[in-house]
Amino acid sequence: MQNVDNQILVGSPRIKKTLIVVVGVLFLIWVIFTPDGLLGKAGAVGYAVCHKISSRSFVIGDRPFPLCARCSGMYLGALLGLIYQSILSWKSGLLPPRRVTIVLGVFVLIFVIDGMNSFLYLVPFDLALYTPKNLFRLISGTGMGIVIAAAIYPVFHQTVWIDWVKKPSIPGIKSLFGLIGILFILIVGLYKGSFLVLYPLALISSAGVLILLTVIYTVLWIILLKSENRYNLLNELTLPLTGGFGTAMLQVIVFTIIRYTLTGTWNGFDYF
Asked: Can you tell me the distance from the alpha carbon of 230 to that of 236, in angstroms, rounded to the nearest whole number?
């Protein structure tokens, strides 16, 4: 019984090799059929999850960002939020306390208001509360990214580890504002930055899409394998992590095929 459990937990070598090959082929297909260059690949990731409207995106030289301003902020906020919590409270599996949750709720409200305002700006009648700006989109998206990270991080650890820690991943307001301060610097750098700042942030924001999807799908794989709370070390997660990344790539590929079939272009929805 113990051997069977261990097979489910870490996967037999044959299962892992097969899965790695399948995911590798899937990734290679995506690489071959997407635009050339790092920015091209980053843009292809954004293509699967974002409208990529040029007027709502930052620009690197003469090229729009891989993601719109709001999505750039959201995925940068989520990715750096996950990294920040990993450094601050590794394996912590409890949601933030009420004071932190209230602030996160404000971030969600700002995200909804700014998103609705941007939508109302597009309708024939002038119903927008204020003129949308990419800076507002970036700020509201970053706040939502923090919320996403604060929700996903404890769920991941509470699902995965045997010895997950029964402490909040963001223990208090001070910790939250530490994260906000770091992201504020990035917002300023992105909004006012040069090519040397914009280029890596463009790649990191797109990487954030795949990392976030991989984390979510890894949790789902662990649930499907019925192996919750049975892991001790990261190297035991090869099977679910590979499955999670493969599922993330599959989603990106499927969404890309659907969008390209409908539009016939890698450009954004610049029809407004």
From this structure: 9
Sign of the CA dihedral running 40, 44, 47, 49: negative
98 phi, psi to nearest 5 deg: -60, -40
Assess contact for 141 and 79: CB atoms under 8 A: no
Tokens of 208: 């954030």
The amino acid at residue 220 is L
* Contacts of residue 156, Cβ cutoff 8 Å, sequence gap at least 6: 215, 218, 219
Segment 104-133 shows an average pLDDT of 88
Q: Please give the pLDDT value at position 215.
A: 97
**Three-state DSSP class for 64?**
strand
Q: How many residues appear in the chain?
A: 272
Q: What pTM was computed for the model?
A: 0.91
| Residues pairing with 59 in the sheet | 64
CA distance 46 to 107: 23
Domain residue extents for the chain: 67-263
Which pLDDT score, from 0 to 100, does residue 2 have? 41
Q: Would the pLDDT of 3 be above 80?
A: no
pLDDT at residue 271 is higher than 80: no
Q: Collapse the DSSP code of 35 into the 3-class scheme (helix H, G, I; strand E, B; otherwise coil) and give the result.
A: coil
Token pair for 48: 């699967």
- Residue 93 tokens, joined: 């599996």
